[in-house]
């Protein structure tokens, strides 16, 4: 397992590199490389073809792929996404590409492409999860894996590119789903606005010029580097790199540093003229993601969250610092502490046996070990069930009593809604507020939750043994 190899690696580092400490004033270009997986650093930061390109590298265990990196130079820390885990590399020394310890910050994100970004004002870490269809965040230095919050979820199909302006309390992100677009929102995910929605294919990487309110991005399918203002205006193509699929981009002091894994190249572009400042080709290594490690570019700001004792999470929202709770918790009346109103997670999947429902957190699909919650219904035999997540309700067919039952997850109370003969394949139409199921392999029954009435909608069918529903279009299969 990779995790085992990483911890062996950590022990080696602690034993043999114990005198290698990060320097807070360090500066350098940091690249996450595939084949082999490694950190590659350049000091000083190259600015043109005449730069020295002095570099150092640290190779990670076999088959490791770094898909995104971000940094907190003031604390000599680099964060990196490797497979389904975000790691923190502490006491990072850019000139030697070494570090003294590694800690997993978040385990259980999907093993998909997606940027991670550090909020240097409030010390929060944000990331995209393209397979779970959300953007989430957590306090960057809180090692509790259960402390995180999903800040953007609705209508996301494939979020991958992400950039933050902590000073203006804004985030920008790309959704590379069927209708590709770039949006902006507040750091708490509120006030979303689409700013670019035409001429996009797959935007993998975003970067910001926070002094001049400029958004830069690379489109891996269009082979372009592009720019627009924060509101989407003044969009233009800076450079078209025919045949070069750029996977990483970072703006630093009026230079755009970019990398391409497929072309095995690192390069720099003048954002005004589009001219190439340097271009380097690797023999074997595949540079995938890039970051500039420079504390001077992160101007000093007083953290508005520093005086707010939030139990879980503090976000510098549009109206100022506010406390938020991790997934599955609610904020109490004091607006600082959090309470768990349900024994179940806010997001997850539910399984059952004859007399029990068990819920696993959604991250466990990535193979992460996690706790699970369960509810026993010993008075019933669960034949099939459906869930209304909005009302914290489980509906199930009880074959012991031949009834359609309702379980309130919060109160754990069970009530009977209607009698049944036999039943299987229970479905829930969350738009029409209807339940449906199969009886005797030939009849489909509909039950209205609003009116409490039961109707036979199909009869004389042949050997029906399962049902699915498309609530948006009102179809069942």
UniProtKB/TrEMBL annotation:
<dbReference type="InterPro" id="IPR000033">
    <property type="entry name" value="LDLR_classB_rpt"/>
</dbReference>
<keyword id="KW-1015">Disulfide bond</keyword>
<dbReference type="GO" id="GO:0042813">
    <property type="term" value="F:Wnt receptor activity"/>
</dbReference>
<dbReference type="InterPro" id="IPR001881">
    <property type="entry name" value="EGF-like_Ca-bd_dom"/>
</dbReference>
<dbReference type="InterPro" id="IPR050778">
    <property type="entry name" value="Cueball_EGF_LRP_Nidogen"/>
</dbReference>
<dbReference type="GO" id="GO:0005509">
    <property type="term" value="F:calcium ion binding"/>
</dbReference>
<dbReference type="GO" id="GO:0005886">
    <property type="term" value="C:plasma membrane"/>
</dbReference>
<feature type="repeat" description="LDL-receptor class B">
    <location>
        <begin position="169"/>
        <end position="212"/>
    </location>
</feature>
<feature type="signal peptide">
    <location>
        <begin position="1"/>
        <end position="22"/>
    </location>
</feature>
<feature type="repeat" description="LDL-receptor class B">
    <location>
        <begin position="213"/>
        <end position="255"/>
    </location>
</feature>
<protein>
    <submittedName>
        <fullName>Low-density lipoprotein receptor-related protein 6-like</fullName>
    </submittedName>
</protein>
<dbReference type="GO" id="GO:0017147">
    <property type="term" value="F:Wnt-protein binding"/>
</dbReference>
<dbReference type="InterPro" id="IPR000742">
    <property type="entry name" value="EGF"/>
</dbReference>
<dbReference type="InterPro" id="IPR011042">
    <property type="entry name" value="6-blade_b-propeller_TolB-like"/>
</dbReference>
<feature type="domain" description="EGF-like">
    <location>
        <begin position="323"/>
        <end position="338"/>
    </location>
</feature>
<dbReference type="GO" id="GO:0060070">
    <property type="term" value="P:canonical Wnt signaling pathway"/>
</dbReference>
<keyword id="KW-0732">Signal</keyword>
